[in-house]
Amino acid sequence: GNAEERGKVEEVDFSPGWRGERNETGLGQLRKIFKTIKAYAAPIWIVNFVEGTRLTSRKLLESQKFARERGLPILRNLLLPRTKGFVACVRQLRNAHVQYVYDFTIAYRHITQGFQFPPNLLQVHSYSPITPPWSFH
């Protein structure tokens, strides 16, 4: 038959250092996923969480230390972006059917608890628009 795949979710997880067996497995997964995408010229959306994690006080301090050591801007309300995953995806898409790459950031702040209280996906799509617990930018 003419089965058509309407939606498929693939997830590849890389630790920040991109070292070790786990990341070699991740790179293999990435290559396999993109090989399929290119072979079928499938229309795709890739959601890339370049920070790779949720903001916490400890992670913010680590990010600020990393930035300070490298002369980068010291950010107060978000982590420095991690670009290796994005670069790996773009490299895999070279000479493919993909014509556009859009980059955007979604910022959130809990109305009473601040930046370090992230919503989960269900909360993002189900809160009351009259009294939202988070503001999004």
TrEMBL record:
GO molecular function, one term: 1-acylglycerol-3-phosphate O-acyltransferase activity
Descriptive protein name: 20753_t:CDS:1
A cellular component term, taken from the record's GO annotations: endomembrane system
Entry superkingdom: Eukaryota
Species assigned in the record: Dentiscutata erythropus
